[in-house]
Batch of 2 targets.
Target 1
Amino acid sequence: MFIKTQCSSWVDGSPKSRARLYREKCAASKDFVNQGGLPRKALFSAVDASLRRLGVEYIDLLQIHSFDYNTPVEEIMEPLHDLVNSDKVRYIGASSVWTYQFAMMQFCAEKNGWTKFISMQNHYNLLCREEREMKKFCNETGVGLIPWAPPCRGYIARPVSSPQPSDRTAVELKMGRILSVGQTETDHAIINRVEEIVQKKGWKMSTVALA
């Protein structure tokens, strides 16, 4: 069984709440020390909690989600290596980081003989993709690429003027504004082009988004 989990985001530590909290608020407050980011304590706590919730002995692939600017690279990569050596994690990967950050972490692990990342997950869809550096770096160094959000949070799976509002739509519109996707004239032109294709072919927009 393949299990992947991500760690980095801060969450409310109360038993009844698992809401993700704003990074800036948590990083600046002593109340959230070791409840997020990528220091050793947070990494081990996140993995142990995931193992308990999933009811398994190990995680096949653990991915860090975003870069931790408050923790030295060495203090990120060594505990990840220790998690692999402890048999709690089989492989490690990363997502949502810049190429230079990913390269720094890989080079740090290689220099110290620690476990290196085997996967990289970045935005890859018709509206948002990074092909100039990350893709080439991963291809040249043997790192697997995992697409994140091929339908781009659903924007490519429905017309720009979709008349079907829902709770999910409201959430995605809010996140879209935060992430600056699906809102520009260029984005709308691409989505409209996808709609033209599906009308000609009789396909679904989600099919073209994943093609």
Target 2
Amino acid sequence: YTLAGPPSFISVRISEMPLKEGQRVRKGDVIAIFDMANVRRLEVGIARTEVERAKVDALEKKREFDRRQILFRDKSISQESFYDQRDASERAHIALEKARLNLKRAEALLNKMIIRSPVDGMVLGIYARDGEAVSETTGIAEIGDVDHMEAVAEVYETDIKYVKKGQSAIFRSPALNMPLTGTVTRIAPSLTRVAIYSLNPVPNSESRIVKVYITLQDSVRAARFINLQGTARIDTLHTEN
């Protein structure tokens, strides 16, 4: 998940960025706060005060209307007095609803100034710091779900017929002291132009591959090697049940 800032027409800078790369976050944790947040908080406070005032006024107007309704039934007040208070009560109710709507709008604007993590995961990259404007292309930060790590193997279309879900696989890389093991869980439904160079006799310009997704068993260790490149060996002779 790449976390973006507010729309480009809103000019803001980051005022707080309490994160480090590799840090674990929970869904809803604050990732960044923009400099307009304090202004928006003030607006929310004002809007809440207006709601409370409108509540009190609407309640008072309603009580007075209820009182006059009884008096009107007893013919103790004029029809004009009754209708005047009824209209006043309705206006107070409308004012209360308007105040509540203004509060919701103010809270929505505040929420745009506070970026939160959409998932439980790890901070994979930070692309903006305190005092910096947010780039539309890179965003603020990248959050990844590292509890379910995958390796993506590129298998030539001529070999994909041997690959099945449930087959075990081993991922190796010079960066790993020990290989990572996993299981084939997904096979892409479409072909892709080759993205790697190899000793395959078919020219790269003519080769196409299928992406095979391998769920790794040791997600904790794999999480240290996001975007690591290596080789995957799939055991096509055995399929796990």
